[in-house]
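Hi again,

Forgot to attach this to my earlier email, sorry! This is the prediction with nicotinamide-adenine-dinucleotide bound. I've pasted everything inline since the attachment limit keeps bouncing my files.
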Amino acid sequence: MKNKNEGKKMLESAQSIIKSTALSLGLDAFVIDKLIQPEMVHEFSFPVSMDDGSKRVFKGWRIQHNSVLGPYKGGIRFHQDTCREEVQALATLMSVKCAVVGIPYGGGKGGVMVNPKELSKSELERLSREYIKKIAHFIGQDKDVPAPDVNTNPTIMAWMHDEYEKVVGRKEPAVITGKPVERGGSLGRTSATGRGGVIVLKALLSKLNKSTTKNFVAFKTSELTVAVQGFGNVGYYFSKLAHELGLKIVSVSDSKGAVYVQDGLDPDATLNCKREKGTVAGCYCKGSVCDIKYGKSIEKNNILTLPVDILVPAALENVINKDNMKQIKAKIIVEMANGPITKEAYDYLSKKGVIIIPDVLANAGGVTVSYLEWVQGKQGYWWSEDEVNEKLKEIMEKAFDDVWKKSKNKNIPLKQAAFDVAIERIVKAME
Ligand code: NAD
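Structure tokens for the complex follow:
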């Protein structure tokens, strides 16, 4: 369970990597301070009427970290354990993520301390509307553009968007992204994060196949095995698209269990099975057939230490840590969740030669298609799903290439290279 201390740790770790990157780039103290301090912190409380006629007060934040490259951009999370420090850390990482992929945004993040599962649908709607009323004058399509995050979704974005337009008294289709398609959302947004992860993984594999290193000799994509922790939105689309690329998905997990299918499982059949059973546990699906003879159940945490080539944490933060880092066997880790590897485990695995595609690059497909939704909303002209996917591919491939080149030129891991690329871009725009 998260608490203020964990939020503090997360903030310290985000600030520490920015600081060390800035120092290595020879930036002066003023610039480093500018990169670390948020430009604006909105902290507030607001009352919400409950269904029984009572009222409750909720605490909320919108933190605007850096706007040098464009309007602030970042999701709104509803979580009982969120706190100012966590929201600030996430806003800081959004500045980096947007700069890594080269989209014209700064970083922001919002949060409300609430367990949305304890609210009825109408209470949730009232809370969402009251929250956005509180920040309506600080956001705007050219100022700060919120989106969904943990426990918020397109329906909640639609409520917030509607309330925002009532407050400002005009239409503003691009002020919030992640809206339902019928309300100005973009085609391709649902699969975007998983798709972006597979695009950068494919780019990495192609580079590795060309340059044999001590850990890698030439390989066939179809020989590579993959384990995906978390079979939710991101994990499912990642598995599906990696499977289509020819990779062998041998294991997937969710909060209730994990399956292992040595010859590779079928993500679509597994999703259908999960929908029926409520979990992937027991879903041994090859082709369109699910049968126990194909696989076995494993303890959900053991997915992380399976002897696979590629490990994809796509569920929670800090899951690869000092307790299991020595048992990790994968040669490549794709950080699809935010912050799935602790600093200690990251240092250990990097030293061991494990290639880690960092979250600020690997999971940036989501914010990239949010950007494409914003562009479509501003111009009032909508692209087909293929057009959106093609633009996402272009942006992600370029971002990977920039980070890869930096990593090779400076002989540094991809994560350090991603922060270098991002900070250089932000600082250049500050000059
Ligand atoms: P989701 O809620 O759709 O899926 C999360 C999945 O993780 C669920 O299947 C859940 O059962 C599983 N899970 C929870 N605890 C687990 C455990 N202990 N072991 C294995 N599985 C477990 O969420 P999502 O949108 O897929 O997001 C996943 C991660 O990706 C989060 O860290 C999120 O911050 C990050 N992310 C998401 C997006 C996006 O566009 N959705 C963008 C960037 C980053």
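The chain has two domains: 4-173, 192-362. Residues 141 and 175 are 4 Å apart (CA to CA).

That should be everything now.

G.
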